[in-house]
Amino acid sequence: MAGGVSGYAAISAKVRAMYSNLLTPQDISRLSESPDFSSLISALKHTQYGPYLSALKDNELTPRRAVQQIKRRLADTYASVVQMSPTQARPLIRQLYRSFELGNLKAVLRSIVTVSSSWNADEAPWDRVREVLFPFGSFSTLPAQAMVESGSVASAVELLKGTPYESAISFALRRFSAEQNLFPIEVALDLDYWRRLWTEARKLKGLDREAATKIIGSLLDMNNLMWTARYKIYHKLSEEELINYTLPFGFRAHDDDIRAIAAGADAAAVISRIFPTIPDVAALLEKPHTGLPKLEVQIKRQVIQQCAAAFIGNPFHVGLPLAFLILSDLEIQDLIALIEAKSSDISDEELHSTLLKTALQN
């Protein structure tokens, strides 16, 4: 399909209809009042997730299986939006979707370096790993099972020839071989993924480019700032390393901001200037073990508001499908938090501090 009004008329109408079926902040609040896991699942069966959860027998509905089933809805949503999208928007949306394949790749590599004694003697490694992989479907380029069964990271990397991950991971493999640590590989994969996503956003023109760089840039802001804080606080990286392990672009957070933090500037002051509505950033950074996850929640809530704003005004651009897909993903994150809380001893107070979508109630 072409771009502009004619190219986006059908997908805009469809996405708006799908957007109206997302859970409201009030829905999330009501689900959070479920007394236990079984009650939560019963309530979710009366939502758009019902057909996915009902596909399992009651004795199969463990928390892990429930999470996998609701992720299947997200996978189907992505596949539908990719198929409906105008030709010029598809590479960007496909690359956005590839974040879940990147997560699968990391999970596969981590499984290879995990001590084999953590598995049952009669359970094949692949049987365990596939339970946690995102159901990426026909879009996947990973030979995941063959990688798991290859027995080593080097052998698994050999199987990535011809995939979008070949170049980045091959370069980082040398450092992994020396240090036996997946950190440099994962960083290289993350940076490569986000460079590709930003490049696809910048290739667009007019309203498409404006909307894409704003929405994708907001995700970049979050990642860049959280990477910077974690690298500085937890990994004690040097200024040069920190700059090399982050990206020099975004929507609100720019290269000068990242370089300032790397050089020793007050990180709380920089973040507060970029996100002035987030309260008590300095207090959060004083206790990073608990404060950084809370800061990430606050920034994700800002992203939600940015995506919700895309549905106001001219609908004939790539911003609508991008915003809808990101909101769908963040909704899944809320549901995973609910499932984990209701199947464990997480307190209601701790649960509510992690929920994202309830921020739209304010």
Main β-sheet description: none
Gross morphology:
globular
Q: How many helix segments?
A: 19
Order of helices and strands: HHHHHHHHHHHHHHHHHHH
Low-confidence stretches at least 5 residues in length (pLDDT < 50)?
A: none
- How far is it from the N-terminal to the C-terminal residue, by CA? 38 Å
Please state roughly what percent of the residues sit in beta strands, choosing from under 5%, 5-15%, 15-25%, 25-35%, 35-45% or over 45%: under 5%
| Helical proportion, percent range | 55-70%
Tell me the radius of gyration: 21 Å
Residue-averaged pLDDT: 93
Secondary-structure-derived class = mainly alpha
Extended strand count? 0
How would you concisely characterize the structure shown here?
This protein has 19 helices and no strands. By secondary structure, the chain is mostly helical.
Strand-helix topology:
Layout: H1 4-20, H2 25-32, H3 37-44, H4 50-53, H5 63-84, H6 90-113, H7 125-129, H8 144-150, H9 153-158, H10 166-179, H11 183-203, H12 206-233, H13 239-244, H14 255-262, H15 267-274, H16 281-286, H17 288-309, H18 319-342, H19 348-354
Helix pairs in contact: 1-18, 3-18, 5-6, 5-18, 6-8, 6-11, 10-11, 11-12, 12-17, 17-18
What does the model show?
This protein is mainly α. It has a domain at 98-204. It has helices spanning 4-20, 25-32, 37-44, 50-53, 63-84, 90-113, 125-129, 144-150, 153-158, 166-179, 183-203, 206-233, 239-244, 255-262, 267-274, 281-286, 288-309, 319-342, 348-354.
Features:
19 helices; 362 residues; mainly alpha; single chain; 68% helix
